[in-house]
Amino acid sequence: MSLVDGYGNLNNAWRAPQVDPSNYANIEANVRYAQAAERGKFAFLFTPDFPAVRPGVEHTTISNIIDPMIALTAVSQATSHIGFVATGSTTFQEPFNHARQFKALDVLSHGRAGWNAVTTSDPAVAANYGKPVAERSERYERAHESIQIVQALWGSWGKDAWIKDQASGQFIDSSKLQPINLQGKYVASRGPLGIPPSEQGQPVIFTSGGPSPHLLSIAGRYASGFIAEVWTIEEARAQRAMVRKAAEEAGRDPDEIKYFAGLMTTVAPTVREGLDRRIAIAGEVLEARVPHLGGMLGIPLDRNQLDQPLTREQLSAAHASPMDPRSEPALKVAREGWTIRDILAHGVIDYHPTTVGPAAVHADHLQEWFEAGAADGFWVSPDIYEDGIDAFVDEVVPLLQQRGVYPTDYAGTTLRENLGVPEQYGPDPRLTGGAQA
Length: 437
Hints:
This protein is α/β, with parallel strands linked by helices and 437 residues long. It has 15 helices and twelve strands. Helix content is 39%, strand content 13%.
């Protein structure tokens, strides 16, 4: 489940009457949401991270958790099984910082941490670190070096190095706690890292985004999870195949990398009630998106037509724009006869597919994608956290369990166990190249 800012994925969720507008700074709210997700047997919480303030914050939220590592450390102490996948950029952070922070979270949570390793090209973020935006090739070369150094640091404390023998007075076998002495073109570290292994050994590495060759090289070599942005089954199947092929080409079993598609949800007794809920909160935002919808459908749309369906002539001329993968689902909704306002309330211009209505609507989407081989799992982003998480857990999860496509309990207590990915401690011995000692 995505955990962003204490409010939800719906525009203006912070203004919903059931929401405390102070939740951005209220860790108790995120703890409550995490506990609800754990009750629903979610494998992990996913926190994106954009360490800069976006424009327009006068009326919108920061749209970012205050600090992923600090917040998830607090949440970890109030949960026992759910995992935590936090985003950390290799572009500005040093690998020793990442190694220390993520392994500490892994130990404190008893083996439930994951690192979404990404690169950063946003000028606002670069300015906060006082650095220019590097070229893409440099960002990814640095990412390769950083991940290899992080994994080497994670493994620098040998699995059986911690003696802890009070009688003899030996605390550590120093021969099994050794520097790594890795020097790359962009980053380096001597080590060792003074943190022992967790119950799962070390954190699980994820990556996220679209299937660029650079990102696939990261995913194929290091990742056990890939968090995707896709809108159709066909697109997801093709992308998942690319991710699996990248892992195979790196010498790994493609089943070792799990592909997660996104889904934004509004659970309500009926589709009409769900749309009304979304319209009541995000009303003016929907109106502003009318021209964008027209571009997606290849026809001019008038805001004066907002509460009318597309005319027969408009539907005849409408076609999915090849430039926007969201266009095909948008055209499908338009052909169902909804008004333009309702089409937009279906979330057709959101960042991921959006399902609106009773439990079966959401369960059908998830089951269809899963059985079509479009995803190994999903990261769900409820419209309003305050009641949207509980609604999904109480209504959608039991239906999926009845259908036999969702676990009725956790497979274990670590993130690796619950994802079904293999153990690893230190660098993967099957991989070669990168930062050199």
